[in-house]
């Protein structure tokens, strides 16, 4: 970044770098989904074994995200984000070159560290941007989470068209990771760390939280194979509850905790986290419903459109993904002017229209595309709105951890949604066609609508109780933004 670069260009470059980095999170998450059966076939293993390529990625994300957020607070956002991208790059190279399932799972664990980029990106934006630009930039960066997933699906469809090697989609991940690394290297500012700031990292708290989250997510992702009533499934859920309660008790006794229990219990923080849970649930309801339904051959099942992986991504998913990214600045303006909870209500309304519309009208492709786009836009609204609500609820020093917990909530919601949908589809196979019954998809669509109905309730509660929640002083926020800008100017040689 040169000293002569205007502030608006620096802001634009920073937002672009963070958007590409965050998009890479969802690209890496989704690009393996369409090729799981291909991986199982080419590695000569079972589909349930290959499923660990998804499970390991999710577990790594749950364990690493809060710890990486804290490391960013202690050592600076730039070095931690660069280290994450280098780790993801190593994992992607391993995934590209290995023919071993254990090594592929290791690669997916390394790629799981990418989930820490989103909360760190939100913290960087809050530190570097004035309040007038903050909400819009957060909306743009957040929207790339949904758009990145569509890019991952579309890229996988293109790279595996007509069969081929399962390694090909990872080339897309490699290119985006390298691009994000280059952009972040030049765009992320160097911070002069405050010598009076705490340098302690709550490793014990991070370990306990990681164990609790693994015990929670593991049975959610493997419950269909283990059996939902099996001893290991029930035992993991019970153990998770015990460990997480123990984590809360331990955090209350630690001087510099990983996450303050009092912060997480604050209504203005708890509501966005509940919203994140339901947004994650609704996102996978939309993603799995649209792709699986569109790919179902209508001549055999009596419903669906017989789309390929490529056409399901390009025709049925891409419009909603692109529209969400394009409208992100407008969503940001709406959040800034109307308020986060009001925007959450609008997004919930779009989700209800989308999912209930798909319940009633899914015989023609255009109907499914239109209502599916509404559902995807609802997810974009959620991604764009939740960080703004958290920024309004916490002090700057707590931005990273608050967004980290919100990311975990979305991951838990996504895991619950995917596990539930897979269980519903597998348990309701029509013996005459070999495909899930059409009514099963209606149930999934209704579940998606229920998730956004819950988001509407959360937004309403936020509106009613918002005036009683503590909000940061706008003048103090402006002064802090100016202080960060001055610090950046000194480090970058502007003055």
From TrEMBL:
Q: What is the membrane topology here?
A: Multi-pass membrane protein
Name used for this protein in its record: MFS transporter
Question: What residue ranges are annotated as transmembrane?
Answer: 46-68, 80-99, 105-125, 137-158, 170-188, 200-220, 232-250, 271-294, 300-331, 343-362, 368-393, 405-423, 443-465
Organism, as annotated: Winogradskya consettensis
Cellular localisation: Cell membrane
Q: Which domain of life is it from?
A: Bacteria
Q: Which residues form the Major facilitator superfamily (MFS) profile domain?
A: 10-468
Give the UniProt keywords, A-Z.
Membrane, Transmembrane, Transmembrane helix, Transport
């Amino acid at each position: 970044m040169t000293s002569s670069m205007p502030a608006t260009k620096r802001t634009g470059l920073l937002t672009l770098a963070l958007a590409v980095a965050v998009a890479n999170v969802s690209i890496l998450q989704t690009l393996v989904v369409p090729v799981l059966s291909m991986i199982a076939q080419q590695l000569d293993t079972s589909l349930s074994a290959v499923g660990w390529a998804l499970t390991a990625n999710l577990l790594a994300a749950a364990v690493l995200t809060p710890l990486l957020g804290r490391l960013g607070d202690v050592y600076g956002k730039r070095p931690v984000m660069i280290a994450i991208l280098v780790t993801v790059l190593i994992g992607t190279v391993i995934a590209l070159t290995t023919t071993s399932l254990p090594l592929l799972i290791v690669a997916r664990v390394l790629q799981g560290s990418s989930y820490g980029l989103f909360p760190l990106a939100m913290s960087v934006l809050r530190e570097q941007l004035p309040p007038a630009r903050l909400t819009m930039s957060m909306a743009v960066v957040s929207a790339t989470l949904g758009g990145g997933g569509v890019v991952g699906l579309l890229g996988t469809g293109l790279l595996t068209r007509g069969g081929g090697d399962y390694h090909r989609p990872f080339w897309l991940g490699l290119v985006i990771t390298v691009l994000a690394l280059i952009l972040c290297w030049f765009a992320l500012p160097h911070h002069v760390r405050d010598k009076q700031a705490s340098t302690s990292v709550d490793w014990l708290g991070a370990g306990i939280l990681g164990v609790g989250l693994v015990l929670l997510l593991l049975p959610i992702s493997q419950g269909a194979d283990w059996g939902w009533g099996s001893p290991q499934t029930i035992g993991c859920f019970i153990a998770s509850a015990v460990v997480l309660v123990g984590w809360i008790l331990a955090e209350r006794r630690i001087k510099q905790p990983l996450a303050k229990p009092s912060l997480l219990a604050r209504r203005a923080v708890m509501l966005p986290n509940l919203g994140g849970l339901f947004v994650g649930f609704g996102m996978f309801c939309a993603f799995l419903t649209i792709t699986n339904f569109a790919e179902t051959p209508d001549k055999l099942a009596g419903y669906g459109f017989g789309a390929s992986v490529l056409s399901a991504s390009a025709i049925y998913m891409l419009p909603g993904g692109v529209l969400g990214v394009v409208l992100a600045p407008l969503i940001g303006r709406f959040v800034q002017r109307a308020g986060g909870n009001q925007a959450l209500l609008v997004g919930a309304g779009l989700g209800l229209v989308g999912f209930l519309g798909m319940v009633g009208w899914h015989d023609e492709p255009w109907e499914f595309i239109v209502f599916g786009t509404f559902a995807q836009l609802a997810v974009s609204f959620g991604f764009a709105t939740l960080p703004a609500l958290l920024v309004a609820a916490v002090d700057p020093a707590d931005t990273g951890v608050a967004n980290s917990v919100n990311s975990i909530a979305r991951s838990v919601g996504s895991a619950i949604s995917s596990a539930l949908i897979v269980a519903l589809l597998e348990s309701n196979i029509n013996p005459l066609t070999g495909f899930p019954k059409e009514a099963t998809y209606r149930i999934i669509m209704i579940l998606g609508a229920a998730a956004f109905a819950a988001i509407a309730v959360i937004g309403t509660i936020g509106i009613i109780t918002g005036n009683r929640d503590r909000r940061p002083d706008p003048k103090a926020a402006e002064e802090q933004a100016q202080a960060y800008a001055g610090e950046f100017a000194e480090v970058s040689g502007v003055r």
